[in-house]
Design a protein that fits this description.
- The protein contains 4 helices and 4 strands; from the N terminus they run αααββββα.
- The chain is α+β, with helices and mostly antiparallel strands.
- The chain has 2 domains: 47 residues; 70 residues, no CATH class.
- It has a 4-stranded antiparallel beta sheet with strand order 1-2-3-4.
- β2 and β3 form a beta hairpin.
- The model has no long low-confidence stretch (mean pLDDT 86).
Amino acid sequence: MDYISNVPIYGWIVLGVGILAVIPYFYIYSLRKQLKKFKEAHVALQSFMNGKTLDQLLERYIKEVENTEKQMENQNLRLIKVEEKLRKSVDRAELVRFNAFDNMGSDLSFALALLNQEGNGVVLSSINSREESRVYAKPVTEGQSTYHLSNEEKQALEKAQNTLHV
């Protein structure tokens, strides 16, 4: 016990500084081990597919997304044109057959209404007898014709207007 009390104060200071110098060494050693693990994980992450780095993969995927967005934009423009064309195309057709003359044996005459989504189109009528056949075409605008329509033509037009709208 005398030996400890006989050590000069400078000895204690040197011992304390020595201990304090060893503590950071262990801390640095621990940090180096963690850094080594991080580097290994980073290398594994950077080269996990076919030797390509993550940056290369991300750049490729970003370009693919940009190309997909451009394609979608082009498809949307095409779709708008197709929808416009569809609205103006004939998509509703209704046929009404009838017997125009009493001396005929069957319903050889007919009225055919052809309309688009906007209700524009034509009503075709064919009147058939034993001696002759006549065909009439009457324009239709917004579901109405400026020409007089027979009952059968009105019936065909009404059926076409009531057909499912897309």
